[in-house]
Amino acid sequence: MKTADLVDAHGDDVQFCNLPFLKLGKKKSFSGPIATVKCFEDNALLKSEVQRPGEERVMVVDGGASSRVALLGDQIAMILRDNGWAGIIINGSVRDSAEINDMDVGVFCLSVTPKKSVKDGAGKAGVPVQFGGVTFAPGAYAYVDADGVLTSSRDLG
């Protein structure tokens, strides 16, 4: 499904996340039910969550738009891929971008940085997160392609 077609067909039933995402990985589009993590400069909870079966869900991470440290690197990207996640949207940074770009994953993020995050486990999972003018609620749907990121409260497929 193309996001442009979804906007045309569903109008106000979809919301557009208005952030300038970098798009990494070989998977150029993905969609599915939303799972969430809210964390700031600490990726231990994110790693724990993507170790669960992804079931073609989209992981949405509110990292507070930090560009200082990466919440995702090649190791967590491999876990995401191997556990069946559709893709990941990060309001924050990643590292190992060249390796991730060669992987069969879909990663949308704000920036890249070489610095890794702390691993204290701070944050919350399964809570609504807000960024880019959109609320991402667990169980709602995300649609992602080269044109951007949309959300809907229901499955449009």
From TrEMBL:
Residues where Mg(2+) binds: 96
Pfam families registered for this protein in UniProt: RraA-like
Family matches, as InterPro entries: RraA (IPR010203), RraA/RraA-like (IPR005493), RraA/RraA-like_sf (IPR036704)
Coiled-coil boundaries: none
Enzyme class, UniProt record, top EC level: lyase
EC number of this enzyme: 4.1.1.112, 4.1.3.17
Record CDD domains: RraA_family
Cofactor dependence: Mg(2+); a divalent metal cation
One record GO biological process: regulation of RNA metabolic process
Keyword Metal-binding in annotation: yes
Self-association and partners: Homotrimer.
Function: Catalyzes the aldol cleavage of 4-hydroxy-4-methyl-2-oxoglutarate (HMG) into 2 molecules of pyruvate. Also contains a secondary oxaloacetate (OAA) decarboxylase activity due to the common pyruvate enolate transition state formed following C-C bond cleavage in the retro-aldol and decarboxylation reactions.
Family: Belongs to the class II aldolase/RraA-like family.
Protein name per its UniProtKB record: 4-hydroxy-4-methyl-2-oxoglutarate aldolase
Species this protein is from: Sinorhizobium terangae
